[in-house]
Specification:
Low-confidence stretches: 1-33
Structural class: mainly beta
Number of helices: 2
Largest sheet: 5 strands, antiparallel
CATH architecture of the domain at 436-508: Sandwich
Shape: globular
Helix content: under 10%
CATH superfamily of the domain at 436-508: Immunoglobulins
CATH class of the domain at 436-508: Mainly Beta
Mean pLDDT: 86
């Protein structure tokens, strides 16, 4: 049943009844830590159910997608939108998918994958459906002008999120489909990994399940991450060496040339209990220590999902198993990617769990140290009628230091299932402002952008100590170039309010 729901449905609105034990001590601790601000509540007019992580763009605003709503939404067909929101919560719908209406949408319907901002300043993303009905890749200006650059053909469905590689092309995965999958147990195929140029020229890097048993995995989930060594890493929700016939999922690495290595097959410790977790549904994050961090939606000591780290050589360590207490006050089913914030800790969400909601579990926001100590920071549905939202998605850290995210339900409005239409929220953990580089790596002489908060009046920009010429474009953007003599390391910007450092080391490419 899980195979059918996750591969064919991928329905983010699934709800699960659970017995919840209200632990007064846990509620008090959550209340003390609560610094969540609901910035926007989607109502019945724009009932949107956002499920993808936000992205901070060079204009300082946050951009995101919704699965529902839109100018052509009929109430029965989920069309979706792209929106922009300033940090004060003022939201503008930039684009409604399928403006032509009708059963087919040449420019696609919105999916659950997040947007990315490329080095050229434009936004790129994917849709679940396209002109052929199988998904698309699009480019959009910050003002909302959208161009479809590629429509996926038959047998390449449900593209996941994109990543811009160091060569300027985009890489990603399709959750199902794939012409190189003759042994896939699904007629529709087991997924692919692809590369596509900004001009829309595609290359299939790998088709999953090319051999009997699908040892390389099936149904890649959550997209790819390009690590510091230049290779890409990701997860498959199913397949692998264990859990016949469908498999429990894998972690893989793939070179830019398409050579794939299965680093780990889940449910190996032992298979009967899956103490190491199974069914990873999110992509990976490379932390500052070089290791990759991820989640599984099931398995672990208690059966409700895990957080793990894995080296690029394939050594996996389970850091945390969810639902460690009766009633799952720490949450359950972490299906979204983690982020590493500027304090070095990892932050994430669980789809379900928490001490609130008597009939449905509502999700949590947590902090995890690199060593595996977890703290539940917020339990959703803490306000009457879940006005603060429920079912949170992946987080992003803004250059002002705060965390931002969305919930698929809660807030106001009835929603498709009477659960509310979702929210956008901010969460403060007291972290200082910083700057982010776009792109995060480049050769000497390459033009790059610095994203930040209150950059007006900046007097100095250095790349690991090497001074660079620069121009302040706006309070949120500085234009510069990698200076001669620059080496990989921290980028610093001196402003009237203090010195801001980059959240991750900038890599100077050969």
């Amino acid at each position: 049943m899980k195979q059918i729901v996750n591969v064919l449905g991928k329905l983010d609105w699934r709800k699960k009844a659970a017995a919840v034990l209200l632990l007064s001590a846990v509620i008090a601790a959550a209340s003390d830590a609560q610094t969540l601000t609901t910035l926007h509540r989607f109502d019945n007019a724009d009932c949107a159910s956002p499920t993808a992580a936000l992205v901070q763009a060079i204009d300082g605003s946050l951009y995101g997608t919704t699965q529902g709503g839109g100018a052509t939404n009929t109430g029965t067909v989920f069309v979706g939108t792209i929106f922009a929101m300033n940090l004060g919560g003022a939201l503008t719908t930039l684009y409604s998918f399928c403006p032509e209406g009708g059963a087919m949408c040449p420019n696609g319907n919105a999916g659950s994958a997040p947007l990315i901002q490329a080095a050229n300043g434009e936004l790129y993303g994917t849709t679940a459906d396209g002109d052929n009905g199988y998904g698309s890749v699009f480019e959009m200006t910050l003002s909302g002008a959208l161009t479809t650059i590629y429509d996926f053909p038959y047998l390449a469905w449900e593209p996941e999120g994109l990543v811009q590689a160091t060569n300027g092309n985009f890489c990603g995965a399709t959750h199902i489909g794939g012409r190189r999958a003759p042994y896939c147990p699904l007629v529709i195929g087991c997924g692919t990994l692809f590369e596509i140029t900004p001009g829309g020229v595609p290359t299939t890097l790998h088709g999953f399940c090319p051999e009997y048993g699908c040892a390389d995995g099936t149904s890649p989930s959550g997209g790819l991450v390009q690590a510091a060594n230049g290779d890409f890493y990701g997860t498959t929700e199913f397949g692998g060496a264990n859990c016949a016939p469908y498999g429990c999922g894998t972690v893989f690495g793939i070179t830019p040339g398409g050579a794939l290595t299965t680093l780990y097959s889940f449910c190996s410790q032992p298979e009967a209990d899956c103490l190491d977790g199974n069914y990873p549904e999110a992509g990976l994050t490379q932390a500052a220590n070089g290791e990759l961090y991820g989640t599984t939606s099931a398995g672990g000591v208690y059966g409700y999902g895990t957080i793990f780290k894995i080296t690029t050589g394939g050594t996996l360590t389970t850091l945390y198993s969810f639902c460690a207490q009766s009633g799952c006050p720490d949450g359950e089913e972490p299906i979204n990617s983690l982020i590493q914030a500027t304090d070095g800790n990892l932050y994430g969400t669980t789809l379900y769990g928490g001490p609130n909601c008597s009939s449905n579990t509502c999700g949590t926001l947590f902090k995890l140290t690199p060593g595996g100590t977890l703290t539940t920071l917020y339990a959703f549905c803490a306000q009457p009628a879940c006005a603060d939202g429920e079912d949170p998605s992946a987080l992003v850290q803004d250059t002002n230091g705060d965390l931002y995210g969305v919930t698929a339900y809660g807030g106001t409005g009835d929603g498709s299932l009477g659960l509310g239409c979702g929210t956008v929220f901010s969460f403060s953990v007291g972290l200082a402002p910083f700057v982010r580089m776009l792109p995060a790596s480049a050769t000497v002489g390459t033009a790059v952008r610095i994203l930040g908060t209150d950059l007006t009046g900046a007097t100095s920009v250095t790349f690991n100590g090497a001074a660079a010429a620069f121009e302040v474009i706006s309070p949120a953007e500085i234009a510069t170039a990698v200076p001669v003599g620059a080496t990989s390391g921290e980028v610093q910007v001196v402003t009237p309010n203090g010195t801001l450092s980059s959240n991750v080391p900038f890599r100077v490419l050969p």
